[in-house]
DNA sequence: ACCCCCCTTGTAATCGATTACGCCCGGTGC
DNA sequence: GCACCGGGCGTAATCGATTACAAGGGGGGT
């Protein structure tokens, strides 16, 4: 059916070895032969069978990408960045959506290993996973993205929100808030843990109280954010500001407040995490902590390729940036303070990641 | 290095043929042998090499997906739906982002064919493409999604917005609008052409004028929508309503109006296309034409598998639904009309696609 | 008791590339 | 003029599975 090296060899009047050499650009072929081979390949419409090549070379030029939720703008942007970077290096990406379920994740890992991907990029779902240990044991190159696992030694690239979160708390306090609630993610995820911890220490640094009732746990989905907002707003003494640690949960919070007719920015403050394009179009535009997604994706690929080619790699922690807009009452005649004078609400900090 | 059938065969004391048969669940193996083989495979941690299998069977259980823009929520949702459906059928998907560039698309096609994908799912970029003809000529199963090409015979699955657009125009007219502008996509795309055409006929049906100055062309990106909005609002006689035919351009329109301090819904009406979750969170919530994305993705996979296994497939046209919210002035004491009485603004029509 | 059939199993070819190895030939150094 | 060296090329092994074909063996029918 399809044209093979043998066909090309026959037409060019040479051996399959020469065809392979000529086409792969290896040396050890005369210019004359190379020319004849290229012409024959062209004439026959030869298209190398990478399946056969992979079998022989044990390289598939493919990486497996497992993310928890493609529809989450953060992850779809991440997937985009990763595909882009991989493509630039001649790698293809097999996309897998673990749906935050360990079983699915493990099934995909198994699948990808059977497909002999050259490496694995993933945002792990939960703490323990037999499939993951198998990967590590077999020495398959792997890099974690956005989340790491305490129990595993794999290199990670992710963004540390601690600094930006501390700035956010300062910002809120400067705007007069003291009763600030947080909606965090599952404590089995580093992001969920770390962002909560960062928030806690920032509050403590400002000598503010953070009672348990103001700490809520979601699952990174919009609806869990909405439910958390319901609980918070139904409190005897509701918070004056709510901080949600991912974009979907922020969406849910926004939705619930809107439903109750609360004016965000004046009646109550909302701060979010991540920065999809539409965050600035909400009313009011959202103040948020933004992650350097593009750089993270590119770095993930670089690290994985290094793991594939060189061996060991070290982890990378990137910084997040606080993007101040209007959802925390910045426009509502804020108290005159040092910080608010130096960060006027209408001066949106430029995202300096070089992304987008 | 890795465990192979030969290793399993040796340990189980049988031939490689028996191993293959036992593990693939084929009949013609005794229960005893099957048991021994499974045990041996288990003990050795055998993981089949699908590369070798694919070489032999000429099936890769892989489909190639080429979309123009992963970051567009419409396409990322589509990609999600497709991956989901493919996975259910035991197929993996290689994700490619053509970035609306023909060269990139063609490069990806070439790549995917070299990888011997079992089929191709794509949203084609432009009218003509040599790589695409090559696919067709070679008989590689292919299904177009969301866009079709007049010059090619491949089956398509997409959503026809005509009916919903006509309803939208009715809706706008009932709210008192007559000077309605449209921001459409490249006329090289079916969607761009069809939606404009549908809008034109709907306007004509209502005997409304649609001068050229009210027809603008974007490229499906937010910024092109913003620029079109600038031009429209700078007109001597600006429109009272603007309809943008995809979600990103709608975003741009929204942005520009917000920038000018226009109150959407009262000063000017905006209607969009697609329905990402945050459309209902904008202020005001957007009235929009929504596509059955999930069903489209599932259908695309079904069609492709049928093309792979059976042969020919026929195209499918799905219907869009008008989702009425508040961005067209629905809450602003609309004129009492038949339609507005029967479609009160606070009664959001349920999305009956069964998605999400 | 004999034969035939079918079920089970093994041997080896096969998919399409890459590549180790060896041959041949021309050129160079002595 | 002879031996050696090395570049160019072909032959055939190889990657790891699937599968066509053949062969062996047990059971049932007559």
Summarize the structure.
The structure is a homodimer of 356-residue chains. The first copy, chain A, has helices at 5-12, 16-24, 31-44, 50-57, 73-88, 102-114, 130-138, 162-174, 190-205, 222-233, 247-259, 293-309, 338-342, and strands at residues 62-67, 92-97, 119-122, 142-145, 156-160, 180-184, 215-217, 241-244, 269-273, 287-290, 316-319, 321-323. By secondary structure, chain A is α/β, with parallel strands linked by helices.
Salient structural properties:
Rossmann fold; 434 Repressor (Amino-terminal Domain); 43% helix; homodimer; DNA-binding; 13 helices; elongated; 15% strand; 356 residues; alpha/beta; 6-stranded parallel sheet
Q: How would you describe this protein?
A:
- The structure is a homodimer of 356-residue chains.
- By secondary structure, chain A is of the alpha/beta class.
- Chain A folds into three domains: 5-48, 434 Repressor (Amino-terminal Domain), CATH 1.10.260; 60-158 and 294-318, 3-Layer(aba) Sandwich (Rossmann fold), CATH 3.40.50; 160-291 and 320-342, 3-Layer(aba) Sandwich (Rossmann fold).
- Chain A is 43% helix and 15% strand.
- Chain A is built from 13 helices and twelve strands.
- Chain A has a six-stranded parallel β-sheet with strand order 2-1-3-4-5-11, sandwiched between helices. In chain A, strands 7-6-8-9-10-12 form a six-stranded mixed β-sheet, with helices on both faces.
- Mean pLDDT of chain A is 89; it is low at 333-356.
- The interface between A and B is large, with 46 and 46 residues.
Order of helices and strands of chain A: HHHHEHEHEHEEHEHEHEHEEHEEH
Query: What's the CATH architecture of the largest domain in chain A?
Result: 3-Layer(aba) Sandwich
In the residues of chain A, how many domains can be counted? 3
What integer value in Å does the Rg of chain A equal? 26 Å
**Looking at this structure, what is the CATH superfamily of the largest domain in chain A?**
Response regulator
Distance between the termini of chain A: 44 Å
How is the biggest beta sheet of chain A arranged? Answer: 6 strands, parallel
Shape by Cα distribution of chain A: elongated
Largest interface, counted with CB-CB under 8 A? A-B, 46 and 46 residues
**Looking at CATH, which topology of the largest domain in chain A would you report?**
Rossmann fold
